[in-house]
């Protein structure tokens, strides 16, 4: 495995595009036993322009952003203030109080529901070409026996951390500004904050609008009243800062929030 990591660092240095980078990181992660990765670039507590490169399942992507987990992800919160790698299971989650499940706990429970039983987080604290500090982090998703991850983390965590640092630096060289889209099997979200606000229903009504359905037709398809459909369309327009429904659909398609 150490030779694989050494080969990966050499490959990162010679990568010619973001797709190459994504494929190198994914291959290296799977050789270490992980199922996939998610790399959040440029995160700060007040940031509104994080970009994400990922190979996690589409179902998990949909759940993560539609449920607004980006705002409450405990891995992200800890990564902002940590220099060392850590496992998801190292995080002490807040308790359920009076039947209310905190967002951090909901995030991790949802990940487990999607088969991600644990993961390894690699925090990165860097300085851009203008001298401004910024934070990124790589999360490696584990679907195997969770009892095996501590040993993998102990043996390879340091090397994976070094690889992530080199990977991030190469990413900045190749493409500091990312656009939403698919690069082979690699998903890229140019502005992660653009999707967090839309609920599942808001995405549903936008998707049907993208297929040319009127509010009345969408209401019949989804089993809702036309007033409810228009309510969701209005909220989606506002969140996307769109001038009208057509504009909202165009923005959503461009950002990868919906597909046609």
From TrEMBL:
MF terms (GO), sorted A to Z: DNA binding
GO BP terms: regulation of DNA-templated transcription
Alphabetical UniProt keywords: DNA-binding, Transcription, Transcription regulation
CDD domains in the cross-refs: LuxR_C_like (cd06170)
Entry superkingdom: Bacteria
Pfam families, per the entry: Autoind_bind (PF03472), GerE (PF00196)
InterPro entries tied to this protein: Sig_transdc_resp-reg_C-effctor, TF_LuxR_autoind-bd_dom, TF_LuxR_autoind-bd_dom_sf, Tscrpt_reg_LuxR_C, WH-like_DNA-bd_sf
Protein name per Swiss-Prot or TrEMBL: Transcriptional regulator, LuxR family
Domain HTH luxR-type: 191-256
Coiled-coil regions, chain positions: none
SUPFAM superfamilies per UniProt: C-terminal effector domain of the bipartite response regulators, Pheromone-binding domain of LuxR-like quorum-sensing transcription factors
PANTHER family assigned: DNA-BINDING TRANSCRIPTIONAL ACTIVATOR DEVR_DOSR
């Amino acid at each position: 495995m150490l030779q694989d990591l050494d080969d990966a660092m050499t490959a990162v240095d010679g990568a010619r595009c973001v797709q190459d980078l994504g494929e190198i990181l994914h291959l290296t992660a799977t050789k270490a036993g992980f199922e996939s990765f998610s790399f959040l670039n440029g995160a700060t507590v007040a940031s509104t322009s994080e970009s994400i490169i990922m190979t996690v399942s589409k179902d998990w992507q949909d759940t993560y952003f539609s449920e607004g987990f980006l705002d409450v992800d405990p891995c992200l919160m800890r990564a902002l203030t940590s220099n060392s790698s850590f496992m998801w299971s190292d995080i002490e989650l807040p308790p359920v109080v009076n039947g209310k499940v905190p967002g951090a706990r909901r995030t991790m429970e949802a990940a487990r529901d999607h088969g991600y039983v644990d993961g390894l987080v690699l925090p990165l604290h860097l300085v851009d070409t203008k001298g401004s500090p910024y934070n990124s982090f790589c999360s490696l998703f584990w679907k195997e026996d969770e009892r095996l991850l501590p040993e993998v983390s102990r043996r390879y965590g340091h090397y994976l951390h070094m690889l992530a640092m080199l990977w991030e630096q190469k990413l900045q060289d190749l493409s500091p500004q990312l656009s939403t889209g698919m690069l082979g099997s690699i998903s890229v979200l140019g502005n992660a904050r653009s999707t967090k606000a839309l609920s599942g229903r808001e995405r549903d009504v936008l998707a049907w609008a993208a297929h040319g359905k009127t509010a009345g037709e969408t209401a019949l398809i989804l089993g809702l009243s036309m007033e409810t459909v228009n309510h969701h369309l209005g909220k989606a327009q506002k969140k996307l800062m769109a001038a009208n429904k057509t504009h909202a659909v165009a923005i959503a398609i461009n950002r990868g929030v919906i597909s046609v």
